[in-house]
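Lecture notes, part 5. Sequence design as translation. It can be helpful to think of inverse folding as translation between two languages: the language of shapes and the language of residues. The source text, in structure tokens, appears below.
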């Protein structure tokens, strides 16, 4: 097993938040983690619904950049990402197996779009998404489904 997975593309695209992997949050279905994450930024149900039903993850991301952010967004964004990622893997058995099959590989969201918070660009960044994926993998492995 590869010790480092550093690109969420090609054979590892399923690790990407853009991967179509519908999941429920409450009574609402989100087509991707990207739709979920971007929808949670908004301050109104209308905004959330507009983003949730966006045609693609790219469109959801674009809409998320122009909405009025909820006032506590900076404090809760990591938790929102964690919830979305965990639900993706808890509710999609095939993806959960793939995640567990990565073993102890380090997961790094390497990118060329200068995302230094969620990923790593040019060797620099916090890799928050990779850390969340590894946390979710460990929790599922240990039977922590809450």
């Amino acid at each position: 097993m590869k010790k480092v997975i550093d690109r969420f593309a090609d054979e590892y695209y399923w690790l990407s938040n853009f991967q179509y992997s519908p999941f429920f949050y409450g009574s609402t279905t989100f087509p991707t983690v990207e739709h979920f994450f971007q929808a949670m930024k908004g301050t109104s149900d209308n905004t959330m619904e507009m983003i949730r039903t966006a045609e693609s993850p790219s469109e959801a991301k674009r809409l998320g950049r122009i909405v009025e952010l909820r006032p506590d967004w900076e404090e809760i964004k990591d938790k929102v990402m964690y919830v979305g990622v965990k639900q993706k893997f808890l509710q999609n058995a095939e993806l959960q197996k793939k995640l567990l099959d990565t073993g102890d590989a380090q997961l790094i969201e390497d990118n060329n779009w200068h995302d230094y918070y969620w990923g790593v660009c040019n060797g620099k960044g916090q890799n928050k998404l990779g850390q969340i994926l590894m946390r979710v993998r460990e929790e599922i492995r240990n039977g922590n489904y809450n």
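The translated text above is only one of many valid answers, since several sequences can fold into similar shapes. Helices lie at 33-39, 45-52, 57-66, 73-90, 93-101, 128-141.
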